[in-house]
Amino acid sequence: MKKSPDLPSPAKKTTDIAKIAPEKDLEAPGAENLDKVREILFGMKMRDYDHRISSLESNLRKEISSNAAEMEKRIDSLENYFKKEINTLSDKIQAEQNQRDQAVKELNQRLNEIDKRILSLDDKLIQANRNNHEEILEQSKTLRKEMKDYHDELCHSLTDSSNELNNKKADCSYLASLFSEMAMRLNNELDLNFDLK
Questions:
Q1: If you compute the radius of gyration of the chain from its CA atoms, what whole number of angstroms results?
Q2: pTM of this prediction?
Q3: Distances (CA, A) of 28 to 13, 21, 25, 185
Q4: Residue 71: how many CB atoms within 10 A of its CB?
Q5: CA–CA separation, 5 and 54 (whole Å)
Q6: How far apart are CA 50 and CA 56, in angstroms?
Q7: pLDDT tens per residue, range 143-193
Q8: Cα atoms found within 13 Å of the Cα of residue 183, Cβ hemisphere only
């Protein structure tokens, strides 16, 4: 930015005018003369100052316009950069969301399959329990029948054994009486033999 030239202060202007034209001379000719005097004394400088001020204003406008254009370019560049970054992040987020959705779908499918397997296993276990229960009932009936048959057979065998023992006991008693009688006879015979001698 160009440096503005040093402009004389209003106090300095008044002092210069006072030095060149005393107050009584300025007041005397009237307003019209005063303007002429001013034009003669300061016209050139004032035009030069006006020209410089216009030039400075023009340069300042150009610089402001240039800075505004540069700022607009930078803002556009930043906007484009942010748009690209936002689009990239949006794409990444969308891709991650799609992956998560796919993972959730696969997980739900697996869970559904596991649920079906569990239900199938439950049905199989229920059926197996029914079959086992029926088989156990059948086996218990068979065992009861076998135990009853075995019990009846044992009872029959015990009855037969008891009858046989009773018969044997009777035979033993008979044999004992028989032996006893034989012993008595033998004793009697022996006694008779001893008497005969």
A1: 73
A2: 0.35
A3: 20, 11, 5, 213
A4: 10
A5: 12
A6: 10
A7: 888 888 877 887 877 787 777 766 666 567 777 777 788 788 777 765 655
A8: 6
Write the CA distances from 57 to 2, 4, 87, 105, integer angstroms: 10, 10, 43, 69
Q: Label residues 17-49 b or e (16+ Cβ within 10 Å = b).
A: beeebeeeebeeeeeeebeebeeeebeeeeeee
Q: H helices then E strands: how many in the chain?
A: 3, 0
Helix 31-196 and helix 10-20, axial crossing angle in degrees, nearest 10 = 170
Alpha-carbon gap, residue 39 to 46, rounded angstroms: 9
Report residue 8's pLDDT band, with 50, 70 and 90 as the boundaries.
Answer: very low
Contacts of 8 (CB under 8 A, 6+ apart): 16
- 60: Cβ–Cβ under 8 A, 6 or more apart, which residues? 1
93, two tokens: 């987020």
38 Cβ contact partners less than 8 Å away, ≥ 6 residues apart: 17
DSSP 146-175: HHHHHHHHHHHHHHHHHHHHHHHHHHHHHH
